[in-house]
Amino acid sequence: MGTKSTRSSGTQFNPKGVTQGNTLIDPNTGDPVSVITDVSGKRRLCVDANITAQTIQVNVDLDGTDGDTIAIVDPDSGNSLEINADGSINANTEVDAADGDNIAISAHPFQIFSEVSDSITTPSFEEIFSYTSSNNNTRIIAVECTVSTPSIIRLKIDGVIKKELRTSSLERNIIFEFREHRPIDSGKALTVEAKVERFILSSYATFTSLEGYTI
Fold this sequence. Notes:
single chain; 215 residues; mainly beta; rod-shaped
């Protein structure tokens, strides 16, 4: 038996026999629709198609207290991360090095390396303090100096002027601060010189103190 007319779109009758049945026809091209066999052995239609994917926004919440299944959890204790309303988290910081970890707060004990009482006896700059470092691990924090009259005081390291300050009739004490904890290598000298502004008396008392530490 021959096939019927193809005026009926989409359907074609095959002759009787082994291949008896219906064949789907593409209404635009007139070609039979292809058939493939999937991995499970089922025969399926093979269709060319264009798929348009829309952008989907996904918000992932890592807070383990809001009831969902997404969270940062300690597998041993079962404790989960909780995020506060302002976005911060509560954390415990361990600073004890005695338990074998490498997190600790350490500090070097400050000490007075030297204290010297002296006097100025001339109208020129006079050295009123000197300290020579004995190792490469010396760190200087501050040098405090007092002169009994308004004066210009300057600090030198290894002969080079590093800082200069002035006292007044209201404030006779000055402090040279080294916030970076100034290192002084072994053999290098720190000296302080002072010059009074109005040399009237035969001498003026001074006192200088050096504070620092060794590492």
